[in-house]
Design goal:
This protein is α+β, with helices and mostly antiparallel strands. It has one domain: Glutamine Phosphoribosylpyrophosphate, subunit 1, domain 1. The chain is 28% helix and 21% strand. The protein has 9 helices and 14 strands. The strands form 3 sheets. An 8-stranded mixed β-sheet has the order 4-3-2-8-7-1-13-14. It has a 4-stranded antiparallel β-sheet with strand order 9-10-11-12, with helices on one face. It has a two-stranded antiparallel sheet with strand order 5-6. A hairpin with a 5-residue loop joins strand 7 and strand 8. Helix 2 packs antiparallel against helix 3, helix 3 packs antiparallel against helix 4 and helix 8 crosses helix 9. Pfam families: Asparaginase_2. GO terms for molecular function: N4-(beta-N-acetylglucosaminyl)-L-asparaginase activity; peptidase activity. Keywords: Autocatalytic cleavage, Hydrolase, Protease, Signal. It comes from Canariomyces notabilis.
Length: 364
């Protein structure tokens, strides 16, 4: 969801030691390091992953990612991760998650997962126990149950009440286009407009709505140098049932290559997956960019086509240097590494479309 700057600033004062948020930079606190999207309640995930690494030598980078993301799932971080948030048009909450190993490049993911709360753990089970990379919907749920996970309702009284209020407000806003009755004033049920009546001349701006969801995307660099990344989300609020966003898509929601670095993303997932921004950012690292430069380039590529996109990209290289970029909102990310006593949160001012030519020409 879009966050007013004042609200973010207040959260930073409560959750960090400094009297003001740190600027976006490429610091190196040392290894191991955990970096993830968003501050506020999401710092609980940072702490959980970091402490698992520090307190237990057997904790791997993949373990830490799973521990961190599952912490947010259980805590329902900002109601945009885990059960009880972001209901679809039918008032049902479904979950998306992925996890990736930066050494083997193997990944596992679930999308549209129903009735199972442990999305990131199920995603890891996909990676561990199948030759596949992505399972979806009810059959992903069946796989989860076969692997010992428990079915339970993902909706809560709060999520159902929120959905009913949305319906009473005429189902506004929603994601329907080119249907009848007019989705801007009606809940449906909808039927497609005849081809001749389609509004094919819609502007690019029509495809950009205010982000209604956040994602936890996490990158971990182990003390050994091994890396992993992962993502968990309950998607866009009031989405069309069956919609899958960028979270479980390798290269979009997150990506990692232990030779160079990793990336986590959040924002307008339907747009972001068209650009694979995390894959782009990691390849930017390979070409010699710093983490901040790599993130800014990935965001600018989206801004050139979608000037109003809400996005946030956090990038970590194999040395533990990190940086970020975003657009459309004030993005924050959290990190804890080396011997840091507490998680710190970095505020990232949004890039503007007219800043799209600032990347060094030799790196383009």
């Amino acid at each position: 969801m879009t966050r007013p700057t004042a609200v973010i600033a207040t959260g930073l004062l409560l959750l960090t030691n400094p009297t003001q948020a740190k600027p976006c930079s490429d610091p190196v606190p040392g290894l191991p390091i955990v970096v993830n999207t968003w501050g506020g309640p999401f710092t609980a995930a940072t702490d959980a992953a970091y402490l698992a690494l520090i307190n237990n030598d057997s904790t791997s980078a993949l373990d830490a990612v799973e521990i961190g993301c599952s912490t947010c799932e259980r805590r329902q971080c900002d109601t945009t991760v885990g059960f009880g948030g972001s209901p679809d048009e039918n008032c049902e909450t479904t979950l998306d998650a992925m996890i990736m190993d930066g050494t083997t490049m193997k990944s596992g993911a679930v999308a549209g997962l129903r009735r199972v709360r442990d999305a990131i753990a199920v995603a890891r089970a996909v990676m561990r126990h199948t030759r596949h990379s992505l399972l979806v919907g009810d059959l992903a749920t069946r796989f989860a149950v076969e692997n010992g996970f428990v079915e339970e309702d993902l909706s809560t009284e709060e999520s159902r009440a929120r959905c009913e209020a949305w319906k009473r407000a005429g189902c506004q806003a929603n994601y329907r286009i080119n249907v009848t009755p007019d989705p801007s004033v009606s809940c449906g049920p909808y039927t497609p407009l005849p081809v001749d009546d389609l509004r094919l001349a819609r502007s690019v701006a029509d495809d950009e709505g205010a982000a209604s969801h956040d994602t936890i995307s996490m990158v971990v660099v182990h003390a050994s140098g091994r890396m992993a990344a992962g993502t968990s989300t309950n998607g866009a609020s009031f989405k069309v049932p069956g919609r899958v966003g960028d979270g479980p898509i390798v290269g979009s929601g997150s990506y990692v290559d232990g030779d160079v670095g990793g990336c986590g993303a959040t924002g307008d997932g339907d747009i972001m997956m068209r650009f694979l921004p995390c894959y782009q950012a990691v390849e930017n690292l390979r070409r010699g960019m710093s983490p901040t430069e790599a993130a800014e380039d990935a965001v600018r590529r989206m801004l050139r086509k979608y000037p109003k996109i809400s996005s946030g990209i956090v990038v970590v290289n194999s040395k533990g240097e990190h940086g970020a970029a975003g657009s459309g909102w004030t993005f924050t990310y959290a990190y804890r590494g080396g011997r840091m006593n507490a998680t710190e949160v970095v505020t990232v001012p949004p890039l503007l479309p007219e800043e799209s030519d600032n990347v060094p020409r030799e790196l383009i």
